[in-house]
Write a structure and sequence with these properties.
Layout: H1 2-77, H2 80-118
């Protein structure tokens, strides 16, 4: 009879240990999931911030380069307005090209880049 009680106590102890280990495992698994999600979100945020900053600087480069080209064309043609309107027409052409190609080239590239960063 004592053997049965001893075995029952051993089984209870084993079950309690198993329950403790299982709860530790689940808790660690959840923490790992949070860490992974945070790491992916940080990666996407970093790429977004870098792209925004790079776009900001490129905008200034385009602005001043366009201004320089407009002044240069205006001086060479002898009509400043013609230089400015030529550069403005070039930018309108670039904007129309961007709008026409955004669904086929630009948006898929951006989407794929973000997805790659999430699963990296």
């Amino acid at each position: 009879m004592e053997e049965v009680e001893t075995k029952v106590e051993e089984m209870k102890t084993t079950a309690e240990n198993l329950t403790d280990h299982l709860s530790d495992y689940v808790e660690t698994y959840l923490k790992l999931g949070v860490v992974n999600a945070t790491q992916k979100a940080t990666g996407v945020a970093t790429v977004t911030f870098t792209a925004t900053l790079l776009s900001f600087f490129c905008l200034f480069v385009l602005f001043f380069a366009g201004l320089g080209v407009a002044v240069w064309l205006g001086e060479s043609w002898g009509d400043m307005k013609a230089g400015y309107f030529t550069v403005a027409g070039f930018y309108v052409l670039c904007a129309l090209l961007f709008v026409a190609l955004r669904k086929k080239l630009i948006l898929p590239y951006v989407r794929d880049h973000i997805i790659r960063k999430v699963y990296e």
